[in-house]
Write a structure and sequence with these properties.
Layout lengths: L1 H6 L1 H16 L7 H26 L7 H14 L3 H6 L10 H24 L5 H20 L9 H8 L1 E2 L2 E2 L3 H16 L1 H11 L1 H6 L4 H27 L10 H12 L10 H20 L4 H22 L6
Antiparallel strand pairs: 1-2
Helix pairs in contact: 2-14, 3-9, 3-12, 3-13, 3-14, 4-6, 4-7, 4-12, 6-7, 6-12, 8-12, 9-10, 10-12, 13-14, 13-15
Length: 323
């Protein structure tokens, strides 16, 4: 029983919160339309959290995910729309057509993920420094390509996808669901998943067991880049625009989500259920505070308290307090 509670603490907290929110809101929180709104609001953070989860399990961290998101969305939306590129007078982003731009956006996202992995594994630069530097570098490329001009007229595909519903559920919600299933299969049913956990738990022991740290970390960061590209597509589909300053709070929120869900930043533990519970808890908390008309500055205090409380709770239950 204790093990079940410890391993699924995030899910239990999410269920208890939803029950309390339903009572305090007079049932408004559990209305199907509101639950769909929570899932829709959590979709982009969910994709980013899944990519971050894979890197963190391997013992790393990726602070460049949002920068990659913005760059890939810029390529997809700018280079794929002739009307948009015609408006970008001071930009260096050419029109190449919708499908080539879509492929180029994903390729660039994966390429920067691999570049991060190569710098970490080959040059032995700490992951924090590598990905932070990469984010700054990508930001400069973004300004060169766009001249600071926002992407506001992407191909109609993006808005149609963002507004579409399948079986009564907004289409973007299916993206984190499908990627979550893929990550679950990868972590629990493949040798790569076992190597990922082994590397995060202890690199030296993993090497002695025959695990190649270079290959595993390269794959983890490449997947992180791919997930950033998917999140970029979803962001453009939701907002219809992208700019250099877009999504500034997404990185910290995705990191907070996996921590709240119970994934230790030291690596070697956690899974899809932990990332999902953290993402949904933060999204549900934000939605509940909006229903209760709580001022934005108070919402920030509450979010910070929840994250700090979750980290402290997990530290106590895992015996990670400083002696």
């Amino acid at each position: 029983m204790k093990r079940c509670l410890r391993e699924n603490a995030g899910l239990w907290v999410l269920l208890l919160f939803c029950a309390g929110a339903a009572l305090l809101s007079g049932g408004s929180f559990l209305r199907p339309s509101n639950l769909a709104t929570v899932l829709y609001q959590a979709s982009i953070i969910g994709v980013l959290a899944l990519g971050q989860m894979l890197v963190v399990i391997s013992g790393g961290i990726d602070l460049s995910m949002v920068a990659v998101l913005v760059l890939s969305a810029t390529i997809m939306g700018g280079a794929g729309s002739q009307e948009q590129t015609a408006m970008m007078l001071n930009a260096a982003l050419p029109f190449i057509g919708f499908w080539p731009a879509l492929g180029a956006g994903f390729m660039v996202a994966i390429a920067f993920g691999l570049l991060n992995g190569l710098m970490i594994t080959r040059l032995h630069v700490p992951a924090f420094i590598t990905t932070l530097t990469s984010a700054l570098f990508i930001g400069g490329i973004e300004l060169i390509l766009t001249g600071g001009t926002p992407i506001s007229y992407p191909d109609p595909f993006f808005t149609s996808f963002g507004q579409a519903t399948w079986l009564g559920i907004p289409a973007p919600i299916y993206m984190p669901l499908l990627l979550g299933l893929g990550c679950w299969w990868l972590l629990t049913r493949t040798a790569f998943g076992m190597r990922l956990y082994a590397l995060g738990a202890g690199e030296r022991a993993a090497v002695y067991s025959g695990v190649s740290p270079v290959r595993v970390r390269l794959a983890a960061y490449a997947l992180s880049g791919l997930f950033s590209g998917v999140a970029g597509l979803m962001f453009l589909a939701r907002t219809g625009s992208i700019s250099y300053t877009s999504g500034q709070d997404l990185l910290l929120t995705s990191l907070a989500a996996i921590v709240v869900g119970g994934i230790a930043l030291r690596g070697g533990s956690g899974g899809v259920k932990h990332a999902a519970s953290g993402v949904l808890l933060l999204a549900a908390l934000s939605n509940f505070m909006n229903i209760m008309v709580i001022p934005p500055h108070v919402q920030g205090i509450v979010n910070g308290a929840v994250i700090l409380g979750a980290v402290s709770l997990y530290a106590v239950t895992r015996g990670e307090r400083n002696s």
